[in-house]
Amino acid sequence: KHRILLDCDPGHDDAIAIFLALSSAEIELLGITATHGNVGIEHTVRNALLLTQLAETQTPVYAGAALPLIREPIQATRVHGKTGLQATGLPDLTRQPETLHAAQAIVKTVRENPGEITLVATGPLTNVALAFRLDPELPSLIRKLVWMGGSTTYGNVTPSAEFNAFADPHAAYIVFNSGIKVHQFGLNLTLQVMVREEHIQVLQAMNTEVGRISAELMGHYVQFYRDRYGLDGAALHDPCTIAYLIDPTLFSGQDYHVQVDIQEGPNFGRTVCDYWGGHETPNTWVAMEANSEEVMRLILERLATFR
Ligand code: BDR
Ligand code: CA
């Protein structure tokens, strides 16, 4: 069983990652730490609370960084809407965030359970970098770090950079150079896992609040991909990290050296993968291939278990 902390910026695909984690016996979700990212921190915290409320759990939610470390903040409201959760009929919020800051919650949870906590990050790495700066020994005490971000190839927000990397390149730099082995799920991988109209219909047919809300979120998400890229599906980036923990055989990958470009220029925020090797010692396990059909099947099967 994986005991995890999920650092995220919900966010449509983050929402599915949260639901997948909460509906899987292989995962114990100890807490959600929210970061700025797709939308501002006030929204990501609220969304995390709303999503746990919908899933009827009391998972603690911690508010984290409102701003990146150095660069000016960016958001992805074009993809995720103004609030980050484009769904109608959301419940009134009844839950409250914890008082501890997300970065401190990461330090505290890992320190209390040395070697046992898997940290999953599906947004900019600001909170994780802050935690590593608060407690430099932390990287050696974390069981596993899994991150959706970067790419071995091209980007999405810029020709070379992926959103989570670009939204805080300096934080990503700190994490990749911390000595921890990052398990990276970049765009090169997540673009293989597409949610399509037929999946949305399955979500709808679940006839539950989680199914209905998920269908609505994925509807907007697929529409964005149709308008922006002319594709008939949308990449379900963030849930890949959780699916990997549930069933690692759904993915294959390899160890590479990955560096993060923090020079402000055309490659700002690019994760540079030493694909042919031999230049530097590998520091990252990079996911390369997904069994996409099975990943989608797993996600839908698990989301169907909500009442
Ligand atoms: C990443 O950026 C966000 O918009 C998504 O939630 C995902 O984490 C993909 O580039
Ligand atoms: Ca995200």
Structure, explained:
The strands form three sheets. This protein has an eight-stranded mixed β-sheet with strand order 3-2-1-4-5-6-12-9, sandwiched between helices. The protein has a two-stranded antiparallel ribbon with strand order 7-8. Helix 2 links the parallel strand 2 (27-34) and strand 3. The protein is an alpha/beta fold. The model has no long low-confidence stretch (mean pLDDT 97). The chain is globular, with a radius of gyration of 18 Å. The protein has helices at residues 12-22, 41-54, 77-80, 102-112, 126-134, 138-141, 163-167, 169-176, 187-190, 197-205, 209-229, 239-246, 292-303, and strands at residues 2-8, 27-34, 61-63, 117-121, 144-148, 182-185, 194-196, 233-235, 251-256, 258-260, 271-273, 284-290. Helices cover 39% and strands 19% of the residues. Bound molecules: beta-D-ribofuranose (BDR) and calcium ion. Residues 8-9, 11, 13-14, 37-38, 122-123, 238 line the site of calcium ion.
